[in-house]
Write a structure and sequence with these properties.
11 helices, Multidrug efflux transporter AcrB TolC docking domain, DN and DC subdomains, two-stranded antiparallel ribbon, Multidrug efflux transporter AcrB transmembrane fold, alpha+beta
Length: about 350
């Protein structure tokens, strides 16, 4: 695993945006390797669990009872004495019982040898793991990880039983993005159901929801000309934008329907209703924009990493939804009701 980790490091170290690339350090240390000879164990009538228990008890010891001494309790541990396991030859000479009661040295049923092994073995979900870590600098995390995936798929061939997982901040961001995508769809559905309950007209509810793509235009443009990154705060800004954009459409449609109920014609209701609702819509948008401008312009200050992308999205969406709303909604409303007429 350590060898594969260094191969991955060499493959991705020149990816733009990677900083502090590091492979989890493994320091080899001397260890004793006791490998059972299954054929000899079978001949002597010793099962593998019995062999493992013999090695574990003699080398590591096993607590079999408690000893009370002066009000204090101590574990009573059974294991081979120090003299019997001081050297590798002493360990090879340890005596193990066979099935028929005979006693044979450990070296007859196992290979005992000195070797080198890692100082630590980390596991996750019962699988061994080694961590290749890096920070991201100058680029968004998603594009850096995609470049890393491409390099690894192209240059690294993993043996059977090995696999790569991408975790850390990237994993958290992916999970948060899935949750936010689901909540965005749910919020749009809830908005539509509430509009339908209010107007009792599916088509008019759909006309109001036209504000959502109008708002998305400005939000996407604001991201493109600033950071160019679709981050979690930016997605939250889009969700907030949905509610603001929907409100403007509700104001217009409600006023159109009210004026038509008083006996005004379709075109006159649209013209008069748009003029009457222009001031409230512009005042609300201007007030929101003035509050968001300081957050959007001070994205480099500590603590504004979350607020700034969200403010930029809402500002861009407010701009396009407010101005396009004044043209698109009246046109679609008139087209829809003229067709009915």
């Amino acid at each position: 695993m350590f060898t594969i980790g260094n191969q991955i490091k060499e493959a991705v170290e020149d990816v733009e945006g990677i900083a502090d690339l590091n492979v989890e350090q493994q320091v080899e240390r001397p260890e004793l390797k006791i490998t059972p000879n299954r054929e000899m164990l079978q001949r002597q009538g010793i099962s593998l669990p019995e062999f493992n228990e013999f090695v574990a008890v003699n080398m590591a010891g096993e607590a079999v009872s408690l000893v009370n001494d002066g009000g204090k309790s101590f574990n009573l541990i059974v294991r081979a004495n120090e003299k019997s396991r001081r050297t590798i030859d002493d360990i090879r000479s340890l005596i193990i019982d066979t099935e028929d009661g005979r006693k044979v040295p450990l070296t007859d049923v196992a290979t005992v040898e000195s070797s080198m092994g890692p100082n630590t073995i980390n596991r996750e979900n019962v699988s061994r793991k080694i961590v290749i870590s890096a920070n991201c600098s100058g680029r968004d995390l998603g594009s850096v990880v995609e470049d890393i995936r491409e390099r690894i798929d192209k240059n690294i061939e993993l043996p059977d039983g090995y696999h790569i997982e991408y975790g850390g901040q990237f994993e958290s961001e992916q999970a948060a993005s899935r949750i936010l995508l689901f909540t965005s769809l749910v919020s749009i559905l809830v908005i539509f159901l509430l509009l339908n309950a209010q107007f009792r007209n599916t088509r008019e509810s759909g006309v109001i929801l036209l504000n959502l793509p109008l708002a998305l235009i400005g939000g996407v443009f604001a991201l493109a000309v600033t950071s160019g990154e679709l981050s979690i705060p930016a997605i939250i800004g889009f969700i907030s934008l949905f509610g603001i954009a929907t409100r403007n459409g509700m104001l217009l449609i409600t006023q159109y329907n009210h004026l038509r109920s008083t006996g005004l014609g379709l075109r006159e209701s649209i013209m008069r209703g748009s003029l009457e609702r222009m001031n409230p819509i512009l005042m609300t948008a201007l007030t929101s924009a003035l509050a968001l401008i300081p957050l959007a312009l001070r994205g480099g200050l500590p603590g504004n990493e979350i607020q700034s992308p969200m403010a930029k999205v809402i500002l861009g969406g407010l701009l396009t939804s407010t101005f396009l709303n004044a043209f698109i909604i009246p046109i679609v409303y008139e087209w829809m009701h003229r067709k009915d007429k």
